[in-house]
Amino acid sequence: MAPPSFPWSSFPRNQHAAATITISSDDSGGSSVHSIIDVSSDDEATSKRKWSREDERAILATIADLHSVNGGVIPPSSTILDELRVNGALGRPGTSSRELSKKVYNMRRKFATSALKAAANGGKLKPRTKHRDKKLYEESQDVWPEMLEDGGYSYWEAKAARRSR
User: Fold this and answer.
1) Biased composition, Low complexity: where in the chain (predicted)?
2) Residue 52 · residue 16 · CB < 8 Å
3) Residue 129 CB burial class (10 angstroms; 0-12, 13-18, ≥19)
4) Do residues 141 and 108 make contact, with C-beta atoms less than 8 angstroms apart?
5) Which positions ≥6 away from 29 have C-beta within 8 Å?
6) Is the dihedral of CA 141, 147, 149, 150 positive or negative?
């Protein structure tokens, strides 16, 4: 008789496992002070991040303000960085214009991806979207409203055209 098949499809995918670590100050196993630490993948992701949530919020707010002042044109990263420094809104000391430019590029790409996913889902992000990503998506709508209108399609189309040259 064949063993029963296990219903793998009934398990949710992309679940993050949590681990509990117990630290003891006594090697002999006797009574001692124990520390219990819960570790999850979100903690690991947070420790790898270079930019805080407050920095991302400040960058998006500054770009949105400068975007409206400049007639819909996003200024260069050096101008954005100067504005962030004047306002004292950036929590990362020593940030270069190049680092900020890369961060803005990554946030724009992430927003285009989220806009495309939301458009495919009736204009809403999926319920399993992380809270941080939902907030970035909502705040990015003021910065790149044209991407929201077409679901990020124009961004990806332009990127494909640049690659095919």
Assistant:
1) 20-39
2) no
3) middle
4) no
5) none
6) negative
Which tens digits make up the pLDDT trace of 57-108? Answer: 999 999 999 988 888 888 999 999 999 999 888 888 899 999 999 999 999 9
Residues 6+ apart with CB under 8 A from 62: 80, 83, 84, 87, 89
> 3-class SS at 85?
helix
Contact status, residue 155 vs residue 113, Cβ threshold 8 Å? no
CA–CA separation, 13 and 41 (whole Å)? 15
Per-residue pLDDT reduced to its tens digit, 11-50: 444 444 445 555 555 555 555 554 444 444 445 555 677 8
Residue in 134, 55, 150 with CA at minimum distance from that of residue 99: 55
The token pair at 140 is: 């990015």
Taking the model in full, what pTM does it have? 0.66
